[in-house]
Amino acid sequence: MTIAGALEKLMRHGMPFRFEAYDGSTAGDVDSTYTVRLLNERGLRYLMSHPGDLGFARAYVAGDLEIDGIHPGDPYELMRHFRSRLTFKLPPPAELVKVLRSLGLANLIAPTPPPEEHLSRTRRAFEGWRHSRQRDAEAIHHHYDVSNRFYELVLGPSMAYTCAVYPELDATLEQAQAEKFDLICRKLDLKPGQRLLDLGCGWGGMVRHAAEHYGVQALGVTLSEQQAFYAQQAIKEQGLDDRAEVRFLDYRDVTEGDFDAISSIGLTEHIGVKNYGSYFAFIEDKLTPGGRLLNHCITRDNNTSPASAGAFIDRYVFPDGELTGVGRIVSAAHDAGLEVRHSENIREHYALTLRDWNRNLVENWDEALGEVSLGTAKVWGLYMAGSRLAFEEDEIELHHVLAVKPHEDGTSSFPLRPTW
C-alpha cells in the first residue's frame, strides 16, 4: 500500500486537497487549489507518532510537509476551508494493523521535535510545579522573549499583543488598539493623579496611554525582560518618566498598595485556573476601597471544558496556558471580595485583530525571517489564523470583566449607569 493510499484510508472525509508523498504516490482532489507534499520519512514519522494537530505541526514547522496555495504567514483560507474535514478515523483493528505495517511500524517512533517546540508538560515538571514562579518565568520567556523587532513587524507600532477594539469595521489596527486602551481607561474611570497598576503590562502600551491621556501615576510589571526593556525606553522617549514606570517583576512581588485602579490585559490566561483565588485576592488587597479592576481575558464558551490548551498551542505557543469560561472568573472575583459590575464579550474584535496581525506578518515576511527562524514564523501564521477561526466560530471568547472593591459600608462609588 502506498503512503498516499494508507493516509487516505485513515481520513474520515477523504483528502479534500491534492496529496503527494515522497514515494511518488498521490491522492485526494486533483482540482484542489491546495497541494500538500510529504517530503521525507521524518515527516511521516511525525504524522504517525502523533496523529492530529501536534504531528502535523511538527512536520510542517520542520519543513517536512509543504503546502502549495498558501502564504505561510496567513493560512486562514486553507484552515477555514478544511476546518471540519481534516479528522482521522480508526478502521477495524485488522485493517489498521495492515495500514500501519504498510507504512512501517518503525515510523510510529517519534523523531526529535523541531527546535521551536517547548518541552512537554512532563519534562516541564523538572522546572517546577505548574504555575510556580520559576515555571511561569520560563513559559513567558519561551513566547515573549523572541525578538522585539519581530513583534513590531507583527503587532505594528502600538506593540499591543492583546485584542483590539474596532470602533468601525474599517478602522486600522492602530486605531483599534488605541481605542482598546482608551476603553479600559474609561471603564476604570481614571482621573489625573490616581494610581494605576497594570499586571502583565507587555510593552507598556496601557501604562503609557493612561499616563499620557489620563494623567495617572502608572506602574506596569511583566515577566518578560525584553518587554520591560522596550517599555522603559518607550516611556523615556515619550517623556513620561515622571508618571509611568515598568518593572521586570513577577506581579506577586509588587509591594505597593492602595491603587485606585488595576488593569490586567491578557495575564489571566497564564496564571492557571487553580490560582484564580489567590490572584483575585492579591488584586483585592492592592485596591483602595472604591478602586476598580478591569480584567481582559480570553475565555472558553463554557465553564466545563478542560482548561489546558491543545498540544500544538501548549508546545509551540503558550506553554502552561489555561482558559475557562467567564463564569468561573466572575465567581472567583466575587469570592475574593470584589463586586463584578459589568461583563462584555468582544470576541469578534479579536478575530479582526488576528486578521490584521496575519496581514502584517505576510507583508513583513522577509524581514521577519531575519529575526526568527522559518519554523517560528510558520508557527505564528498557523496559530494566529487558527485562533481567528476559533473566535469567529465562538469556540473561544474575549471578556472584559469590570469589578470594584466596595467600601466597608457596601457602597461602590459606581454611577447609576455606565459612563464609558
Automatic annotation (TrEMBL):
<keyword id="KW-0443">Lipid metabolism</keyword>
<dbReference type="GO" id="GO:0032259">
    <property type="term" value="P:methylation"/>
</dbReference>
<dbReference type="InterPro" id="IPR029063">
    <property type="entry name" value="SAM-dependent_MTases_sf"/>
</dbReference>
<dbReference type="InterPro" id="IPR050723">
    <property type="entry name" value="CFA/CMAS"/>
</dbReference>
<protein>
    <submittedName>
        <fullName>Class I SAM-dependent methyltransferase</fullName>
    </submittedName>
</protein>
<feature type="domain" description="Polyketide synthase-like methyltransferase">
    <location>
        <begin position="150"/>
        <end position="406"/>
    </location>
</feature>
<keyword id="KW-0808">Transferase</keyword>
<dbReference type="GO" id="GO:0008168">
    <property type="term" value="F:methyltransferase activity"/>
</dbReference>
<dbReference type="InterPro" id="IPR020803">
    <property type="entry name" value="MeTfrase_dom"/>
</dbReference>
<keyword id="KW-0489">Methyltransferase</keyword>
<keyword id="KW-0949">S-adenosyl-L-methionine</keyword>
<dbReference type="InterPro" id="IPR003333">
    <property type="entry name" value="CMAS"/>
</dbReference>
<dbReference type="Pfam" id="PF02353">
    <property type="entry name" value="CMAS"/>
</dbReference>
<comment type="similarity">
    <text>Belongs to the CFA/CMAS family.</text>
</comment>
